[in-house]
Write a structure and sequence with these properties.
It is a single chain. By secondary structure, this protein is an all-alpha fold. The protein has one domain: Tetratricopeptide repeat domain (Serine Threonine Protein Phosphatase 5, Tetratricopeptide repeat, Alpha Horseshoe), CATH 1.25.40. Helices cover 68% and strands 0% of the residues. The chain contains 9 helices and no strands. Helix 5 runs antiparallel to helix 6. The radius of gyration is 25 Å and the shape is elongated.
């Protein structure tokens, strides 16, 4: 098997070396993408933003939070419609005042993405803006109730709603409010 691969590589190298080179072209400095040397590759902000978002997720998985945040910030700068970049920025800034704004932008970019509403409600509970938290938990439950991957979080949101309606902090609200004063 190795011998076959070796010979295939040798043949490809020989064929590649014998390929006639393209004639030199005059390059219009305003249109380098039209030259053979550039291979007609054209990049757009949307494409670059998606690449940055993917890199951000990879950095996040590698626990390189600073680089992940940088990639997500650059991604939304190039394409503000990338809801996952906004969402991850919210998660990366969960203890700050900015997290709500990031989650809100994620919800604006993709209104049917439930997780943004959960974390906005969570933030409002921490701030003791219970009226707003109720609305956001309701929206989250409405969007996530049929998603089996969200079942545990839906139960937590339902329990938080019960406590918010009762006017007494129970186990869930106490945990949310105790975590971040």
């Amino acid at each position: 098997m190795r011998v076959k691969i070796f010979f295939l590589v040798i043949v490809l190298l020989i064929v590649g070396c014998s390929h006639p080179r393209a004639k030199k072209q005059k390059i219009d400095p305003n249109k380098p993408y039209q030259t053979v040397e550039f291979n007609n590759f054209r990049s757009s902000n949307e494409d670059d933003a998606k690449v940055l978002q993917t890199m951000g997720v990879d950095y996040l998985n590698d626990r390189n939070l600073a680089k992940a945040m940088d990639c997500f910030n650059n991604a939304v700068r190039l394409n503000p419609k990338l809801y996952l970049s906004w969402y991850y920025l919210g998660l990366l800034n969960i203890g700050s005042e900015n997290s709500y704004d990031y989650f809100k932008k994620a919800a604006e970019a993709k209104p049917d993405f439930p997780n943004s509403y959960y974390w906005m409600a969570y933030g409002q509970c921490r701030k003791r803006d219970d009226q707003k938290a109720v609305q956001l938990f309701k929206k989250y439950i409405e969007l996530a109730k049929n998603n089996p991957e969200e079942a545990a979080r839906v139960r937590a949101a339902e329990k938080a709603l019960e406590e918010l309606y009762s006017g007494k902090d129970g186990e869930i609200l106490t945990a949310i409010r105790k975590q971040f004063p």
